[in-house]
Amino acid sequence: QVHLVESGGGLVQAGGSLRLSCAASGRTFSIYSMGWFRQAPGREREFVAAISWSGGRTDYADSVKGRFTISRDNAQNTAYLQMNSLKPEDTAVYYCAVNRRAYYFGDYYGKDEYDYWGQGTQVTVSS
């Protein structure tokens, strides 16, 4: 069993920044890739960013490239999503997730690649 807890969401004006955290427990965190997804009202949950187990590789959705940065601290069992230059269209509930396969970084755009999810944290960007 894996337990993920997101934090750091909130209300911010357009152009502002937020840093989301995802604290993990219950699994050897350092051998699993992580992903961030988001879901806006009435829309499907969509991929935002992914990071390999070592942190050496990352990838982003086109909509957030150049504005968001994913990182991780394996000593702290925590992943992060730094969000800069926020836009109203970034408003959503943000979820972190653990890849279901150890030492694997691929197909990370799909929700089915992840077997544990956090409860989500709300990010609201006002115009």
Overview of the molecule:
The chain is mostly beta strands. It is 0% helix and 53% strand. It has strands at 3-7, 10-13, 18-25, 32-39, 46-51, 58-60, 68-73, 78-83, 92-102, 114-117, 121-126. Strand 5 (46-51) and strand 6 form a beta hairpin. The radius of gyration is 13 Å and the shape is globular.
Provide tags for this entry.
127 residues; mainly beta; 7-stranded mixed beta sheet; 4-stranded antiparallel beta sheet; 53% strand; globular
Taken as a percent bin, the fraction of beta residues is over 45%
Structural category = mainly beta
Low-confidence spans: pLDDT under 50, at least 5 residues?
Answer: none
In helices, the fraction of residues equals: under 10%
Shape: globular
Largest sheet: 7 strands, mixed
Q: Count all strands and give the number.
A: 11
Task: Summarize the helix and strand pattern as letters.
Answer: EEEEEEEEEEE
* Overall pLDDT: 96
Give the end-to-end Cα distance, rounded to a whole number of Å. Answer: 40 Å
Count of DSSP helices?
0
Radius of gyration equals 13 Å
Q: Layout of SSEs?
A:
Blueprint: E1 3-7, E2 10-13, E3 18-25, E4 32-39, E5 46-51, E6 58-60, E7 68-73, E8 78-83, E9 92-102, E10 114-117, E11 121-126
Parallel strand pairs: 2-11
Antiparallel strand pairs: 1-3, 3-8, 4-5, 4-9, 5-6, 7-8, 9-10, 9-11
